[in-house]
Amino acid sequence: MPKELSPAEREALERWAAAVREALGVPDARLPVGELLGLTGRVAREAVRPAVPPTAYLMGFAVGRAVAAGADQETALREALAAVAAALPGGAGPDHRPSTVPDTQEH
Fold first, then answer.
1. Positions of the region Disordered (predicted)?
2. Residue 65 domain-assigned (yes or no)
3. Angle 84-40-58 (CA atoms, 0-180°, nearest 5)?
4. Cβ 49 vs Cβ 57: under 8 Å
5. N or C, which terminus of the chain has less Cβ within 10 Å?
6. Residue 104 backbone dihedrals phi, psi, to 5 degrees
7. Whole-number pLDDT of residue 56
8. Are 79 and 66 in contact, with CB atoms under 8 Å apart?
9. DSSP-derived 3-state class of residue 94
């Protein structure tokens, strides 16, 4: 489970996510921070820590491709999260423990 973020970390994460959304032109993207942190933590532990950035890139690529083909963005992201979780050596399926990190989205 992702650690609880301090108020300063939470604020920094929100600012960073907003800046990245703006830079990439995706201001309306839902960002399931808790799920992403949980999965990337598992990737770091169960695969190898340097696998986290390429995994995130490939997930983004897969979600973008699915959305371009007409899939719902949230469905495509859930499917990507599940596919990566299933591919991990430590077990099939996403980490279903509750997260202490909220989702973020552009308001």
1. 88-107
2. yes
3. 50
4. no
5. C
6. -120, 150
7. 96
8. yes
9. coil
